Amino acid sequence: MSGSRVAIARNYHYIRMNVRTIDQLLAEARARLTRLDPGEAAAAVRDGALLIDIRSESQRAEDGVVPGSVFIARNVLEWRCDPSCEHRDPSIDGRERQLIIMCNEGYQSSLAAATLHDLGLTRTTDLAGGFQAWRAAGLPVER
């Protein structure tokens, strides 16, 4: 086998050995977080945490928004939150302030919060159950 074929075979083996399922990725992400239930998240926001809503615009239009939350589209979240990025949102200081990521049901937010941990924003967590749990808990929602 030529050198390039050996390298390709090794790379293929490495990739196959490191493939994980979405359930595994989610479990790994959540193991790094101290997830908050809706009541805990509301209390944290009262104490100065920033609730970041990453739901789609259509979900926000259909279901409403949490008063005081900040909308950041999921596809630009890391760029807006990374303090070293030229595209950051200067109003977000995740190194000093707790960030709580909220999606619709609490899955996407776990993965997003873990990614922000990788950027050094280790006070970041997510809302267990997402917006749907917030609303079911009877917490404020604006339409």
Walk across the major sheet and give the strand order. 2-1-3-4
Q: Which spans have pLDDT < 50 for at least 5 consecutive residues?
A: none
Mean of residue pLDDT?
92
Number of domains: 2
As for the CATH topology of the largest domain, it is: Oxidized Rhodanese, domain 1
Specify the CATH class of the largest domain. Alpha Beta
Class by SSE composition: alpha/beta
Task: State Rg.
Answer: 18 Å
Descriptive account of the structure:
- The chain has 143 residues and is α/β, with parallel strands linked by helices.
- It has two domains: 1-31, no CATH class; 33-136, Oxidized Rhodanese, domain 1 (3-Layer(aba) Sandwich), CATH 3.40.250.10.
- It contains seven helices and four strands; from the N terminus they run αααβαβαβαβα.
- The protein has helices at residues 3-17, 22-31, 38-46, 57-63, 77-81, 108-118, 130-136; strands spanning 50-53, 70-71, 99-102, 125-126.
- The protein has a four-stranded parallel beta sheet with strand order 2-1-3-4.
- Strand 3 (99-102), helix 6 (108-118) and strand 4 (125-126) form a beta-alpha-beta unit.
- Helix 2 (22-31) crosses helix 6 (108-118).
- The longest helix has 15 residues, at 3-17.
- The mean pLDDT is 92.
